[in-house]
């Protein structure tokens, strides 16, 4: 971890010694010592100081220069942001949907090295990499005590080839580890087990830092660890020794004061924080929490807030290290020596304790009195659209008949209360809750809200309440510890009686693995265009994410998930109307079954037992489970690439040469056709293949042609290791609206991945049109509105875009990770100037587009967009090139980040 021996460290006087409480000594790069040269360091936000320590420690005169240390140490709260930070992380975490294509890229790099006559072992992660299998289990079976076993057997049956590939990776790479299926969700496993607080190498201590291939990697910020989500291509570079480069950020201080009111949960708080910070536009910024209210929050509540950073748009939602952090480490089974080193290190660095107002310089300060937080849900389409519990019914009723442009469902108001019978005898109405899921990393890591759900279930059962028969219920905790404490407290049987039986340890419903509804429910929904609902304790509720036939999706705390499963419809006002009818025909209200904070607190001791955590995670190595043990992976340093519809050698290195392309090569895009015209909030769920694969889709047709039965299609996520499937599923979301296509007779917009192939104007799938354009040698571009690429850190949203031949994306604004991924795949992101849009330009999709950037591709420089209309007229406007940093210029010129890194490794 020390700088190159050929380089004399200009800040060598910052290498100091410190001692733990038990007298053990160690060395560190001291920030207080650096503050003697740069007094601003002592007032930097804690999150920036941890990044600064990494820059200081890795200063080697090559990738990290003394100027980088000076620039960050001299950070000013409101200065122009033109400097890039080279941040070298301590480790990388992966989940299986994004981890498998990343492993495929590493395997492909080794294949390239072998073909070039070089040692494949040159391709080796230089920092520890942990892959947690958590995205693959689907809720096919639910509501019964054997649901977990049945779902896991199906999971292993469907994913055998992927798991064999992972096992090959475990033996091929020295620093690559796997947490097998059935242990939990990556972010909770990260919190409970993988995060060590500080690392030690060669007598030198340094703080835990990471990037992960999932947006919600930010959950780790709850324990004072700097880390965030990146796409697989960035994570790959990080694990191969490249710093993660980003512009020096603004840091927003979020001051919490007061205390939560009785009856309010961490979920209510995080939905409020998400709404507030979206309003303050914190995209690309660090958010750091401080103040007395922050200090009062239990660690799981902090982690819940940190988890939602992607939803409020920030790079991080950081909580400083304090006594509550140490309590959490003790409760989750970290050793005494680890905790001592952790505390001593952060005290020595002046980073222990939650700051008070005035102690830190922030770019801006936002304040929230915890006492003003009210019970809430978010939805029905975006996580930042918070609704107080008492307004949910009215809001849904209002949106039901509002036009799509106003976030509504565009349905006739008189259809809201109409009853639609199914062939099974169940009556369905608009607003019916068809999926109620305790799911996701966000809330299933928080004992407070899970115990609240169990207590509410107990009170509901005792009152004689039952879940409505049309509701698909599931419990998918983030860790095996959850079911252990639910059993110990006697609450699990009550959840099971209401249908919330254990269905799996994984993301399940939140990632789109809700499993299907019954055929009769699907039939009545599609035939009558019903607007039915899901209520889940997740973090994402974008269109078609939860289930393709459920248009309204609400995020809620676990106890509210149970309550809505009982109520059965979101048009019931749970603040004034009964949740249901109990014993003796008596109405039962939410207040009758809502648990008090004292009841929850009395059970918390069961949730934080260090020995239980140590015993559980020891099984990752000693007893991972019979299903996993039966999986046999390949051997050897290089992968043999067997014929498979799950794993294939990716095409990104097909024309790879050791010599990079000429720096003066063509950077403009000439004569491009428009592939799509999109509106605002196009998410990576819209772009990247996700969820189930339709038989009639290009991907479904390809699988059928390769002998795969419909029952074995699995999901796009499970097939992320095969580019032929994924490129066919890019832009194929059933709810995406390409506004090139004319409105339908009723004024609504056509949904699905379609486009008009020009100049004929023929309607084709985007994939088919892309293949035709590529056959003709015609490049393509995409236009979009605000927040393009918001959502999960899916590298296939960029990889698929590139493989379809799309050379540039022009949008009014980009979400951070997707913009970076586009550059990393050699696709130009361009941003309209304020007031400009494709609508203001009058684009129809029939135009030809030229993109002419600055020949040197200067970061954030002006570029010319030349539009040639069908009548031959030409119009030019200036847009901003969103290649943001010098290293991104190098990535783009190299053909992408992967060829860039591979050349460096093979040249070493």
UniProtKB/TrEMBL annotation:
Function according to Swiss-Prot or TrEMBL: Catalyzes the isomerization of citrate to isocitrate via cis-aconitate.
Residue ranges occupied by any Aconitase A/isopropylmalate dehydratase small subunit swivel domain in the UniProt entry: 702-833
Similarity comment: Belongs to the aconitase/IPM isomerase family.
Catalytic activity: citrate = D-threo-isocitrate
Domain Aconitase/3-isopropylmalate dehydratase large subunit alpha/beta/alpha: residue ranges: 75-568
Pfam annotation, one family: Aconitase_C
Protein name: Aconitate hydratase
Annotated pathway: Carbohydrate metabolism; tricarboxylic acid cycle; isocitrate from oxaloacetate: step 2/2
UniProt keywords, alphabetically: 4Fe-4S, Iron, Iron-sulfur, Lyase, Metal-binding
Originating gene: acnA
GO MF assignments: aconitate hydratase activity
Organism: Hydrogenophaga bisanensis
Cofactors that this protein relies on: [4Fe-4S] cluster
Enzyme Commission numbers on file: 4.2.1.3
